[in-house]
Amino acid sequence: MAGEEALKPLMFLLMYTLMKRRKDINNADVQRRNEIQRRIRHRQYFFQRQRRMLMMLIARSTRCTCNYRTRAWTNIESTDWWERVVMKEFQPRDWLEKFRMSKDTFFFLCNKLKPRLTRQDTHFRLALPLEKRVAVALWRLATNVEYRTISALFGVGRSTVCKCVRDVCHAIVSLLKPLYLQQPSEQEMEDAARLFNTRWGFPHCVGAIDSLHIAIIAPSNNTADYWNGAGWLSVVLQGVVNGLGQFWDVCAGFPGSTEDVTILQNSTLWAAASEGGLSPEPPRSFMGRPLGYLLLGDAAYPLQSWLLKCYPESDGLAPRQRAFNYRLSRARSVIENAFLRLKARWQCLHKRNDCSLDLVPTMVLACCILHNVCEVHGDTFVEEWLEAVSQVDCPQPADALPPSADDPEAEEVRSLFCDYFQQQQQQQQQQN
User: Fold this and answer.
1) Where residue 294 falls among pLDDT bands split at 50, 70, 90?
2) How far apart (Å, rounded) are the C-alpha atoms in residues 188 and 116?
3) Which segment of 37-51, 133-147, 226-240 scores lowest on mean pLDDT?
4) Please, which pLDDT band fits residue 54 given cuts at 50, 70 and 90?
5) 384 vs 389: CA distance, rounded Å
6) What does residue 307 show for φ and ψ, rounded to 5 degrees?
């Protein structure tokens, strides 16, 4: 027994030594395998780098010796579709259907955007042609399809599609907004008032104002601010159009929960109109008194001396007030039609927009500018496009301000127009 007790420490020491030896051998095997894998990866990286350098040298020598331009990183079939089918075989109807504008307007747009979108070729790759970058962005704005679909169609990467959309939208706002979307001058105001009276029978009016909610995906921050009164996430576009349905003032990007009156009061339009920016010098005479130019709004806006809206519907309305409501509603239909045409032409504003929230206001503004470009250039609007926006999945919220928010002095202006339309009715009855 005493001998066995004396052997136990030796047995434990021997077992510890064997276990430690086995552990050291296993660790050595693991380190050896890791080193082998590291060398294999290093060798693969070295060979890939050599291969890339060789391809770049071949591409450089080919570019220097001939005019044929290749893109090893693009899909050949998709590139052929753009260069051969679109650029050479598309008919006028195809340009309207796919890019929402005529071929002439498309190249006019490309020429205007050239200062911001032109890119230089490098030794590593050839720059994407300007026309193709614009086409990628227009396809996205017109259809709102996923980036991967456009990527496969044009033979470019998804990140390239995203960058094209962002760059083109910013370029449109930067270069074309001063040309196609700006507050009219005094002479243009006078022409706009004459056009509105001739076309819609409402004198002294230079525009109609309304708001449009645009569906978005849930933002990562402050999501509750973007739930609108109709129960869906949106950002708000406030627009003013002339008698032809062309925008001359746009304010976009407010969260969907923001009321229309709040957006108006925080816009440059409110500041300009409140300081007399809509009043010509000297003011034009109307019904025997000087009067500035007006905008037409709905029940979501406060009654102002420069902003008229209908009387609240009730059984107690006088005939002159009903006549006023009819004339104003008829004239305001110009902006309702403008919003319909805007959404039908650029369906990224009709369907849920899944772009980054920071890009959405710029995209909305770019679509309004493109709307004006197409309208000014007389591009055909296909009535079939309206079928897509006629199916309302997300009804627009309806705001209404109480009468206490109206300017009491503005009632005198509204009463003047009631008298004017009543006189017109009497004159028409006498003539008949």
Assistant:
1) very high
2) 29
3) 37-51
4) low
5) 10
6) -140, 110
Kindly indicate the confidence band of residue 69, based on its pLDDT and cuts at 50, 70 and 90. very low
Say whether pLDDT at 68 is over 50. Answer: no
Q: Which residues of 107-140 are buried (b: 16+ CB within 10 A; e: fewer)?
A: eebbebbeeebeeeeeeeebebebbbbbbbbbbb
User: For the residues 129-147, what does the mean pLDDT come to?
Assistant: 91
Can you tell me the distance from the alpha carbon of 389 to that of 197, in angstroms, rounded to the nearest whole number?
29
How far apart CA 106 and CA 206 sit, in angstroms, is 30
Q: Which amino acid is at 12?
A: F
Burial class from Cβ neighbours inside 10 Å (0-12, 13-18, 19+) for residue 351 reads: middle
3-state secondary structure the chain: CHHHHHHHHHHHHHHHHHHHHHHHHHHHHHHHHHHHHHHHHHHHHHHHHHHHHHHHHHHHHHHHHCCCCCCCCCCHHHHHHHHHHHHHHCCHHHHHHHHCCCHHHHHHHHHHHHHHHCCCCCCCCCCCCHHHHHHHHHHHHHHCCCHHHHHHHHCCCHHHHHHHHHHHHHHHHHHHHHHHCCCCCHHHHHHHHHHHHHHHCCCCEEEEEEEEEEEECCCCCCHHHHECCCCCEEEEEEEEECCCCCEEEEEEEEECCCCHHHHHHCCHHHHHHHCCCCCCCCCEEECCEEECCEEECCCCCCCECCEECCCCCCCCCCHHHHHHHHHHHHHHHHHHHHHHHHHHHCHHHCCCECCCCCCHHHHHHHHHHHHHHHHHCCCCCCHHHHHHHHCCCCCCCCCCCCHHHCCCCHHHHHHHHHHHHHHHHHHHHHHC
Distance CA 323, CA 310 (A): 10
Structure tokens at 284: 């034009």
Q: What is the mean pLDDT of residues 68-94?
A: 63
Check: pTM over 0.85? Answer yes or no: no
Least confident of 64-68, 232-236, 306-310: 64-68
